[in-house]
Fold these 4 entries.
Entry 1:
Amino acid sequence: MAVARRIAYNVFVSSISKILSTILALVAIGFITRYLGTEGFGEYAIVLAFLSFFAALADLGLYPIATREISRAGADEEKIISNIFSLRIITAIAVFIISPIVVWAFPYPEEVKKGIIIVAASFIFSSGYQVLNGIFQKRLIMDRVAIAELVGKIIQVGVVILAVRKGLGFNWVVSALLLNMVVSFTIVFLLAKKYVRFVFKVDLKQWKSFLKESLPMGISSIIIFIYFKMDTILLSIMKGSAEVGIYNAAYKVLENITFFPAMVVGLVFPIMSKNIFINKAEFKNISNKTFKFFIVMVVPLIVGVLFLSEEIINIIGGGEFAQSAPVLRILVFALGLIFFGHFFNNILIAGNLQKKLVKILAVVAIINVVGNLIFIPRFSYFGSAYISVITEMVVVFLTALMVFRKIDYVPRAEKFSSILLSGLIMASFLFVFKEFNFFMLTLGGALIYFIFLWIFKAVKTSELLSLISRKGVEEYEEIP
């Protein structure tokens, strides 16, 4: 299969799988919120926050470094993957062993503490398959990973529905996540073995070499946890589980969309890495197309949530979570900024500037924690929501500034004003016909937006495929 066609197929299958996974995740949230209520869902969100903490603690920055290293010419892929996979599994097991010590230091109910230990076990499997993703990313076959995650998500949702209908309790709902990770890991592990004959390998010299490169990214993972999830933990300590539930009902809607910018940037990252030093023109071209694509996606996302937040929250959580709607309106701006944060962060990594990125994220983490400590006592979850927006704004500003100074790249998006005008027309439609059915408004608004993009020639049909059909992509090396 030609490379351009391979990428097109990969994008299509990955997108469909991810969309289905997102729908399933939202279905699961709908069952969980109605079953557990605001306080119970808040406790569930606390458990997931600790999953993020364990992931950050054991991350070590190995995944992006592994992908970068095996994508380079002459790389010993088998040796690299064997060592990185082994190192990642050992650190995951170590985190699981110390998790009970960490958990008992917090004033949470017994059930929540058991749930945290369960997700610590699930992290062993999730961390294992995540580091193998580089094998698929290098070969432009991330669709396999997306399908594996979809199968795992189906298992998770099935167990959640069973737990809710049978009244099996809180920790059965949490255990559904563990089963998800076990299934996803098994599928990815078996598929990865078809491409690389990796084994458990301990090469301390190479581990030291990898860690020297990856630790800045590992530190950044901890910092990212601080400004993404510390608000949930701080909110739980200073206010309580019910407030956490209201905040996270809104946050979960957005959290299940953040896969999209990560997926898109992940697909183009190997091409960015290849061209950033040897073909600057092609690097700028693929980067500009990605940047414009994100603008095209973010505009209707923000407009839609601003007008439809009540309906979205009602579908996800029901009437008990009505207070989450105004929080969602605030957080959608943070989501929009996350798209561009992913964009600039990955350019810095491609340019071997991960140490600079760590310094930026450290500053942002301090701003986030201090802001939450100041505003949560007075404004509760609204304070956390506004601090999230400010945090992402600072991330985008500082990383964009670093990209401009160190890589000499400023993103450009043609027809920017036409994209914004199309968004304004979509907003007018949603305002005038606000009494219509939610699904009619959603589909109608999206249709109107993309029709006017076409009318204003803001996006051409050929341009929609430009990320997968440019010369630089077509020349991307064939990998068996």
Note: Residues 3-415+459-474 form one domain.
Entry 2:
Amino acid sequence: MDTFIKASGGVLIALVLYLVLVKQGKDISLLLTLTVCCMVTAVAIGYLKPVVSFINSLQIIGNLDDTMLIIILKAVGIGLLSEIIGLVCADAGNAALGQTLKILAGAVILWLSLPLFHNLIELVEEILVSI
């Protein structure tokens, strides 16, 4: 929690710097934004490590397939990354690029999820056969 508060304070300081720098030139303020986004993402990854280990323990308990959990984690990563990049694009004045990236991310997540859908269909077929 302490790290979150420090990161939040850093973001607020970066915001004030951004507001000062944007008057001088958009290039420097954009670099500041990218740097702070990367730093905050690194902090977020630190918070997600225990979540991944918890998911791994659930996988062992439930005897789940590795590929299914990997697909889910990749989908979450793609969603978070596209959201961050989309916001940076909007901040740089090109929201269309950010929105296009989000559409691409949605398509990639659907593509990644195809094995999950196939397994779901097989499970439904097994249940219907057993009835």
Note: Residues 22 and 70 are 40 Å apart (CA to CA).
Entry 3:
Amino acid sequence: MTRIKRGVASRRRHKKLLKSTKGYINLRSRIVKWAKNASNKAGQNSYVGRKARKRDMRSLWITRINAACRPEDINYSRLMYGLLKSKVKVDRKILAELAVSNPEVFKKFVDVARKEAGPMPKKKVAA
């Protein structure tokens, strides 16, 4: 049986790994064993980060919509309830963009929602 030498393949694999960990601190960018661990962790963190970014963006859109609603004397939940009842299919991303860049169009959405949801209830003042 012939002898199999695997030096070329493993060196190629190691160089590819070290190239991907370039810029990491200390031995994480120079030692293969440490670089492999660092690369795996980075992959896990980036996966988690992609999921977290989606949550963060939705939260930002809701905050922007609510901030744009308040001067129109309606809150976020009443706006979304009114849009749902009036069967207006527009997502939060688009509503937030309209609130920031095109307030006149956003005001029309608020008017449609207010017509369906009704007026805001008055706050009770404790004496």
Note: The chain has a mean pLDDT of 93.
Entry 4:
Amino acid sequence: MRVLGMISGTSHDGIDAAVVDFRLEGCTLHGGVVHTSGTPYDPALRARLVAALPPSPTTFSEVCELHTLIGQAFAAVASDVISESGPVDLVCSHGQTVFHWVRESTALGTLQIGEPAWIASAAQAPVVSDVRIADIVNGGQGAPLVSMMDHLLLAAVPGTSAALNLGGISNMTIVSDDAPTAFDIGPANALIDAAIVARGANALGFDADGAIAAQGTIDERLLSELLDEPYYALPTPRSTGKELFHWPYVEAALVRAGSIPSTADLVATLTELTVRTVAAEVRKAGVTTLVVSGGGVRNPVLMAGLQRELADVKLEPSDDFGAPSDAKEAIAFALIGWLTAHGLPGTLPSATGASAPSVLGAITPGPRGFGIQPTVTAPNALVLEVRA
């Protein structure tokens, strides 16, 4: 079964896509990764999206228009991918998160936009979407949903292994002999990107190759203020997003710290914040092997900081496990689509805090219906092979 997974993450900079050709052999699911790509949002659309995100006010009309425009953007990517790599049986679209409603440590709701009917029409295939809410209904965080893939992919790694994703938000799945656990650690690139945009430091909207951070010095007073954030003390599982970690959050911390750092010093400090918060959770969990993915992998300042703080931990890119770092989440949503199509849960209650596992998503039919597959035995391992 060929599944196209698609997502725009918390950095909201574009659409990642992956086509995976799945086949089940016994209890092992094999996935041939036949295509991966990343497509930036049109700058005008991204600017409009950013302007509507918390803490900015917005309107239902703006949400409706963005829901349509982002759905059309996803549809255009799906059409291009299928033209290049061939037809698919199913699409799983995460869409674009615009709000994740958390009160204290309880997730109450979540909203991802990107109308799936546009994607189904372009792909000529059914689309699984709205994949987080079923887990929240069952008492979970609705995140991190990549945990199922992490659990299957790292099951054979000796010791205590963990998968770390460094997107807008950092999240980690811990795989050990006990039930896997997972949670959002805190900001990875979210605050760095916010500072870059607010200070007009790079038209790309991020610290390319960590070049700005490399020129700065850490402001220890500001870093201490940022590390005092109560979110880091919440019990796991926990989840967060740009509802908390945004530019006004940084501005408030600057006022409390009495700091007026240069842009380079500010970016260096925010990069070190990611290093310190991630390293603390990795050490706390006793992780021996850390498999890293996401855009943060391309930031040498961030990665050097993790290697410095985690000298006794083996750091490996997810590429070594058949999941290219920039496409891992798209591959994970292709897996979720495959599981949903076969009536299998896509969540692990121990990872999200739910009371029960959930079959994820709503299905928008394609021209031949809903694409539901015969029930199969749930796999206990995943082997990925890059064929692209």
Note: The two ends are 17 Å apart (CA to CA).
